[in-house]
Amino acid sequence: MYKEVLRSIEGIGVYPSIALVMFLTFFIGLIIYLNRHGREYFQDIARLPLEDEKDVNNNHKGAHS
């Protein structure tokens, strides 16, 4: 039943290609974002819940985002 409905829609074959391009763009962008920040940035962020408030303020003054 669904196959016949989908076959009757003109241009339906374009949507899977658009979805693929969107997902690839997202994941490539995510990889670029993660590589730009570097491992040290994410290790610092992971340690934040374990540090005292004054340690956090002293360690991250002047840090760029």
Automatic annotation (TrEMBL):
The chain crosses the membrane at residues 12-34. The keyword Membrane applies. Keywords: Membrane, Transmembrane, Transmembrane helix. The keyword Transmembrane applies. It comes from the Bacteria. This is Cbb3-type cytochrome c oxidase subunit 3. The lineage of its organism: Bacteria, Pseudomonadati, Balneolota, Balneolia, Balneolales.
